[in-house]
What we know:
Radius of gyration: 23 Å
Strand content: under 5%
Largest sheet: 2 strands, antiparallel
Distance between the termini: 69 Å
Structural class: mainly alpha
Amino acid sequence: xxxxxxxxxxxxxxxxxxxxxxxxxxxxxxxxxxxxxxxxxxxxxxxxxxxxxxxxxxxxxxxxxxxxxxxxxxxxxxxxxxxxxxxxxxxxxxxxxxxxxxxxxxxxxxxxxxxxxxxxxxxxxxxxxxxxxxxxxxxxxxxxxxxxxxxxxxxxxxxxxxxxxxxxxxxxxxxxxxxxxxxxxxxxxxxxxx
Length: 194
């Protein structure tokens, strides 16, 4: 296999994701696990850049690293201050679990390397242009305008094709948030009555 810059960067960032994932699992200190999670999520955003999806890479950095991972770090720091010491992961790692993970990784690797992946072009058009032509119908034979970025395609799919799913997800998240608030208030009321 020829080592092109794309292949090199794929293996580089894939290795960084793997090291970050292993750091999450095997770190004894919870704060180190959180930092390893940030490293792994950053590697995923770099893979999005390699896949020419800069919008998804930016969302990955802003939402998962900037939001969720920082929230996890904040929770760990607050828990350490309330508990008065450093949080440790005291659960022993089972060698059987490691064996199962290794068998799954090897079998998935064999499957992925045996697949003949299709070339991303159809009759001279790239898959990107093909997806745009499926989303935006040509009106009365007029020439279709091709957008310059995939952000346009994502915006169109969210506002036309997947609008119902997008709205249902927001309602479900709102219900979950309200349920969490009610649950915390009940816990506070029960502890205050003791």
